[in-house]
Write a structure and sequence with these properties.
The protein is α/β, with parallel strands linked by helices. It has one domain: TIM Barrel. The chain has 13 helices and 10 strands. An 8-stranded parallel β-barrel has the order 3-4-5-6-7-8-9-10, surrounded by 4 helices. Strands 1-2 form a two-stranded antiparallel ribbon. α4 crosses α7. It is globular and about 50 Å long. It starts with 6 loop residues before the first strand and ends in a 34-residue tail after the last helix. About 45% of the residues are buried.
Length: about 350
Amino acid sequence: MENIHSIKINSLDIPTNVFFSPINPGYCVNGILSKEFKDFFIERSGLDIGICYIGNVSLLTNWSSNINTAVFSQNKSVCWSALASEIKKNGSYAGIQLAWKPEAIKMQKEFVTGDVLGQLVYFRQFYDSFDQFDQVSTLFSESISQAFQDGFQVIQLHAAHGYGLSLLLSREVSRCENPRETKGARLIRQIVDKLLKREGILDIRISLYEGINDGSDEWAYKTRLFEFFQECGFNLISLSNGFYNIDKNMIYPVKQDRTAILKEAETLAGTYQDMFWNVAGNMEFVLQSRKAFPPNLTFSLGRQLLSDPKTILKIRQHRESEINKCSGCNKCHYYSYGLLGIQKCELEII
């Protein structure tokens, strides 16, 4: 039984339901794309990867998560168009994740905070003072429209991991029991209402569990939030976990956590069958199991495609023994280690 197959989302025929996760590899200077940056994504397109996402692209320089982040507004359309074209030429759909890290929020380098309550106070101060709805919504909507014009067929809004949208949507940060009443919901409405033209796939990434509390009360809140996203016209909801300033291990689960949030993703895909869902977190092990899943559930791989870009191809060809497995060397976590970009993997010996 094969669980890797083609899918159709909003009239787009996507070759497989397995995607390259939105990853920020670094390598940029002043937000400008380098050859190394472009080659990184071109190398991980095609090869039975349905969508290749350019990860964590900041809308403005002062909204970047770190100094080596790509900035959408710093690069000309011809540059983005060329990269999208190369990805499509290889056989994947070109995706781009647009992100907003507010200037007021500083991303910590430590993997786990020693002060969750202190971080929560910090987040709430940002939430309570935020009033830049028109500026932020205009930049998002204009960038989404421009990205579609530049040849990207899939646009993902980064609303996970403690970035601006995720903080404004969070129950713990907003103290709102109804997600539709949050400042984040108001901002999302403004973004989608301002879009000049809807085409391709509109995707949004959200942290199912944020790590601020034990997560026991997040499920009901998030399902109501997902219904809101569906009403706003999103075609795909991408599930992740964690906030950077709380616990990065939730964002990047270790090998033992192979099926983190997989059961939740299956439940959502089965319940909301007219919406497509994506789940990440060591999904290569799940794909190798060849277990059947709902047809509207898709999968993302990150670190494993750093160590072996041909992983999906090898799984489909039953060549699992040839896969260069992720060794867990953590050289992809360049920001936490004070480096300028993702380092070469130390491959696991098999």
